[in-house]
Amino acid sequence: MELIPALSYLAFFLVFAGIFAVMALGLNLQWGFTGLFNVGVAGFVAVGAYASALLTGPPEPDRLGGFGLPVLVGWIGAMVASGIAAFIVGVAALRLREDYLAITTFGIAVVIQLVALNAQAITGGPFGIQSIPKPFADALGAGLAWNLTYLGLVVLVLGVAWWALDRLVASPWGRVLRAIREDELAAASLGKRAAAFRLQSFVLGCMLMGLGGALYAHFVGYIAPEDFLPVLTFQVWAMLIVGGSGRNAGAVLGAVLVWAIWSVSGGLIRGLLPAAEQARGAALQVVLIGVLIAAILVLRPRGVLGERATVSRHAAGD
Amino acid sequence: MLQLVADGLVVGSVIALGAVGLTLTYSILRFANFGQGEFMTWGAYLAVSALALVLAVTGAGVMEPLGPFSFGWQLIPAMALAAVLTAAIALAVDWALFRRLRRQGNAITLVIASFGAALALRNLVQFLYGTLPEYYTREIQIAIRLVPRDVLGGLRITPDQMLVIGLSLLLVVALHVMLARTTLGRAMRATAMNPALARVAGVDVDGVVRATWVIGAMLAAVAGVMAGVVGQVRPMLGFDLLLPLFAAAILGGIGSVWGAVLGGYIVGLAESFSVPLFGAEYRAATAFLVLIGILLLRPTGIFGERA
After folding, report:
1. Is the minimum CB–CB distance between A298 and chain B shorter than 8 Å?
2. What is the per-residue pLDDT for A308?
3. What CA–CA distance (Å, rounded) separates A270 from A164?
4. Contact at CB, B295 and A290, closer than 8 angstroms
């Protein structure tokens, strides 16, 4: 194999794995540390991707925006937009039974998909948004150098998010989250307002998903509603469950593992099946990943890297 | 105006049947089953295959329409066969997946598992049948004018649509009688209220769980076939109905059969009336608005007990 194409593909693979890892970190904050079941990952990713594309893209005559702002502003805007969406959903659903959040987030993802598909004046409708700026592409062109640079950016963002989350969950704030997850009544009796902590965790997690969406949009340069179908939610969940929820390293490892399984099985299907059967093959790919999730839930509920038991250093004085 | 009401009631009947199955599994198995919509899809597609089988066995070849309806009698045994097979799928998924997770005792894990199972089931349908829509019959039906055009905009309805409304009401009444009068019905209600107490009182809880899956899946399969009769059979049939199903079940109050029926009609009517207001493309968002509204105003639903 030629070296340059192989390196190029490796960079491409790792960029996607890194973007998925950012989303999985967000989901891990919600599910792994707080016990919130978010089935609308794809919706919050879409909000971030569209927000950043609108803020940074070149002006378009027949739709809103293209404001031509710097990419960094787009990324921050993506987090803000997803955070606002999450706040609205969270206020409505978080004070209720835990499975109502699942149903509500499922619903918001359906609605966001509808808006992306139909609100032509904002989202470009089924054709989506083209020519989303790629950072540093003017200087580096579209080749390997740019892929590697973007990989560097993604790794940097992932690293900052990972470090910040590790600090957060180790802080008193993170301890309260786990206390609520384990026993809400006990946490409430210590004067912790469970609803407020849940809302903060939910909004923060969704902001990371929005950031993941923005990273995706600026790497590919083109987004359309079919990039944010429920299967995306499913992939991110598979990553978290395979890697092991409740540990940030598990979320990142799961993202790399599941994305590798996904890419290899997708390549096999493309290689083995004739062109007419590709759509069926893609369906089979999702079935296999669904069975993988179910099998891990039954056989190894903690994933590859499960959460470590946290014991007070005073109690563990042996 | 009247036409919108009639269209809403037809859609609402399909939603109501699905939501009744959902509310039963929700209250007895104690988790939100995201797979309920896929049971509808599977029921609809299995009926396509069963219909081909019935036609082949009876040697009829082409289906003769039955009375005023667009389909022949062969669809009735095909629907029954599809319902039985869908129940078998539900039992198989429960045996392989949910039964093991129930032992771990975390309800939300069951929800995740049902989400994964739903995606696998949906894509399996796509793998087996392809993505093109299927029809039970190509017969074209003339709508009957019940109300002339100058009274509130008039009303036209096909015999198939009237059958859908009638059949769903009939099935719900039958279910109600079963729950109210039979030993199994009492056992199911007891398990919904307090599984531990029901077990102590001698109720076979595992049997109740199996019966719940069978009833929920069969209702979903019939609802799927009815959706196919008045529309098309598509891989996304059940997925697109999942949000209306949840909205209807929560609107009626989890565990309440009549609540789910009423919720189904309300969601169906709301969808139908949203079309002239917001346009057909946002029709699917109506169920979400209903859901958010009920969660903000009265999260226990119309007939739900206060938490």
Report:
1. yes
2. 66
3. 39
4. no
Whether A273 and chain B come into contact, CB under 8 Å, resolves to no
A306: confidence class by pLDDT, cuts 50, 70, 90: low
Task: Name the residue among B124, B216, B224 with its Cα closest to residue B178.
Answer: B216
Tokens of A103: 């149903």
Alpha-carbon distance A280 to nearest alpha carbon in chain B (angstroms): 5
In three-state secondary structure terms, B145 is strand
Residue B163: strand, helix, or coil: helix
Q: What number of C-beta contacts closer than 8 Å exist between A and B?
A: 120
- pTM metric for this prediction: 0.88
Query: Alpha-carbon distance A238 to A297, whole Å?
Result: 10
What A72-76 contacts at long range (C-beta under 8 Å, 24+ apart), as own/partner pairs, is A74/A214, A74/A218, A75/A211, A75/A214, A75/A215
Which element (helix H / strand E) includes B144? strand B144-147
Task: Specify the CATH number for B2-297; select among 1.10.10, 3.30.60, 1.10.3470, 2.60.120.
Answer: 1.10.3470
Interhelix angle A98-118/B107-129, rounded to 10 degrees, is: 40
Flag if B97 and A294 touch (Cβ within 8 Å): yes
Sorted by where each begins, the domain ranges of chain B are 2-297
Q: Minimal Cα–Cα distance from A99 to chain B, Å? A: 7
Type of residue at A286: V
Please indicate whether, in this complex, the C-beta atoms of B111 and A102 are within 8 angstroms of each other: yes
Contacts of A225 in chain B (CB under 8 A): none
Cα angle B280, B282, B288 (rounded to 5 degrees) comes to 135
**Residues A102, B32: C-beta atoms closer than 8 Å:** yes
Angle at alpha carbon of residue A43, lines to A41 and A44, rounded to 5°? 70
Helix A248-272 to helix A3-27 angle (10° resolution) is 130
DSSP for A3-20 reads: HHHHHHHHHHHHHHHHHH
Both structure tokens of A200: 């903060």
> How far apart (Å, rounded) are the C-alpha atoms in residues A40 and A51?
17
- CA distance to A254, A285, A289, B166, B169, per residue, from A268 (Å): 21, 10, 14, 50, 49
Give the pairing of strands B155-157 and B144-147: antiparallel
Check CB contact under 8 Å for A106 and B34. yes
Which chain A residues in 48-107 lie under 8 Å from chain B, judged by CB atoms? 92-93, 96-100, 102-104, 106-107
Q: How many angstroms separate the CA atoms of A85 and A100, rounded?
A: 17
pLDDT in tens, B196-252: 898 888 888 889 999 999 999 999 999 999 999 888 899 999 999 999 999 999 998
Closest residue by Cα to residue B167 from B230, B210, B217: B230
Q: Looking at the predicted structure, is the pLDDT value of residue B107 above 80?
A: no
Residues whose CB falls within 8 Å of the CB of residue B120, separated by 6 or more in sequence, listed in order? A286, A287, A290, A291, A294
Torsions phi, psi for A133 (to 5 deg): -60, 140
**Most B-contacting residue of A30, A103, A280 (CB-CB within 10 A), to test interface:** A103
Q: Say how many residues make up chain B.
A: 307
How far apart CA A107 and CA B243 sit, in angstroms, is 6
Whole-angstrom distance, CA of residue B304 vs CA of residue B106: 23
For residues B37 and B245, the answer to whether their CB atoms sit within 8 Å is yes
- Pairwise CB contact (< 8 Å): A110 & B288: yes
